[in-house]
Amino acid sequence: MPTMRDVAERAGVSVATVSHVINETHYVSPELRQRVEDAIETLGYRPNRLAQALSTQTIPLLALIVPDISNPFWSHVARAVQDLAEQRDYSLIVCSTDGLLKREIRFLRTLSGWISGLILHPYHVTHEHVNRYIGDDVPVVIVGDFLTVQAQPPNWDG
User: Distance from the CA of 115 to the CA of which of 44, 48, 52, 89 falls in 20 to 30 A?
Assistant: First the structure.
């Protein structure tokens, strides 16, 4: 798997220049940009998003957990959330639980440590489940009124 260093050597530029082209963080002249893009294409380089997330300590990924994505209501919600997430350079993962507790918990467990925000329509899980797996530092938005009788943690918006 080619690295940024490999791309830099192939293009005859610094690793910092490659990083600026990939992340669009600083101006790079059209000539250098083209050399870097050609090297990326030739080598088949793909940025390591996990390494980027570790270095910036941010993961531009949101999760939407709903009961049934085939329900037109939830597919419209998913589309709207995706459009808003994309405007802010976030990606979205959509999980469909069929209203099953084991799936709700499995998705929470799987997403643990990987998301910057959670949008959830819970059937069975409580804030204790979410905080156990997702933590209290990840913003959570609750869709629906299933948890209105429970006290909501400060990182939740319902």
Answer: 44
β-sheet bridge partners, residue 92: 62
The one-letter amino acid code at 76 reads H
Using alpha carbons, select from 61, 90, 93 the residue that is nearest to residue 78: 93
- DSSP strand pairing (117-120 vs 61-66): parallel
First to last CA, the chain: 44
Give the pLDDT confidence of 61-81 residue by residue, as tens digits.
999 999 999 999 999 999 999
The closest of 147, 81, 67, 50 to 131, measured between CA atoms, is 147
Pairing of the two strands 91-96 and 61-66: parallel
Angle formed by the axes of helices 15-23 and 4-11, nearest 10° = 110
Interval 82-139: pLDDT, tens: 999 999 989 999 999 998 999 999 999 999 888 989 999 988 888 788 888 888 788 8
